[in-house]
Amino acid sequence: MATLFVTGGAGFIGSNFIRYWLSTHPNDSVVNYDSLTYAGNLDSLRDVERAYADRYTFHQGNIGNLELTSRLFEKHKPDYVVNFAAESHNSRAVVDPGLFFETNVMGTQSLLQAAVDTGVPRFHHISTCEVYGDLPLDSDAKFSETSPYLPRTPYNASKASADLAVRAYHETFDLPITISNCSNNYGPYQFPEKLIPHFTIRVLENEEMTLYKSSRNKREWLHVIDHCKAIELILKDGRIGETYNVGSGVEVDIETVADTILSILDLDASFKIYVPDRPGHDRRYLLDCSKIRGELGWEPEFQFEEGFKETVLWYKDNREWWEPLLTRLQVDEGKWG
Fold first, then answer.
1. pLDDT in tens, 94-127
2. Residues 6+ apart with CB under 8 A from 9
3. pTM listed for this prediction
4. Residue 12: phi, psi to the nearest 5?
5. Do residues 14 and 4 lie in contact, with contact meaning Cβ atoms separated by under 8 Å?
6. CA distance 244 to 251
7. Under 8 Å CB-to-CB from 239, ≥6 apart: which residues?
8. Which residues does 176 contact at the CB level (< 8 Å), separation at least 6?
9. How many CB atoms sit inside 10 A of residue 140's CB?
10. Cα of 35 vs its chain's centroid, Å
């Protein structure tokens, strides 16, 4: 019987992780700690609140609040802290970079300090492939866990800095940590600013998709539940102090993502328009995941074509979830340049 303290649990990956964990670990409890910024949405967890009321607790709070976080650690005595909390939208980081460093760096440092001060036995930090920089489109190269950090945007740099802070707290204060760097996630409950829901919702609203001119830039796509299962294995069997890359190996460019959405929804190419690239628009990411596959036996289970179609249709069928969120969008992707 374990208690997990999940930060950022009202976000996309965090809410899916909480639902997954409670449904597959019937003796465990989960504490969700989220500041409920514009992208935090408790509606993503209404079913969890109903189904697991005796094992699920929510506290609103900021990971940068050392006093509150420490008090909650003392109260709940978590066996694991899993840190999803972050500002994560690259476009928004161009507009307000300071917020990203405040949350992702200083917030993570405060969370780490609370973990040390209260004797948290295990701290897992969720990071991104983007800390490594980008790769040429015409390359077969991949990023391994030993690749140098070469972030190119404020978001990427803030996440790279957070990773370094996590490692420093392990080396200096003996905090038992693990880190996972994941590729682009997709699935249900993703905030409408992100690519797949953004494109899908725009065409459902009879609006045009805004593709960057570099529409052949590629991303590696990982279903969110495959990511949750990877974290589960890392918590169970991962080596303390280690980093694990988590990716599917499936690369799809943005043009193809747009075309596939249109095909699924039986729409034509008139819904595509092209806008200037966002500053710092990365070309390509691909992770070498041989470490987590070899050490922990993890393999992605979702086939991209099937998971992608299910995701697009989820947004089509769940308008009541995303429609209220459209007023929270903070960046106009069509106005770069």
1. 999 999 999 999 999 999 999 999 999 999 999 9
2. 15, 17, 18, 30, 32, 33, 34, 45, 58, 84
3. 0.97
4. -60, -65
5. no
6. 19
7. 178, 295
8. 121, 122, 123, 170, 240, 241
9. 7
10. 16
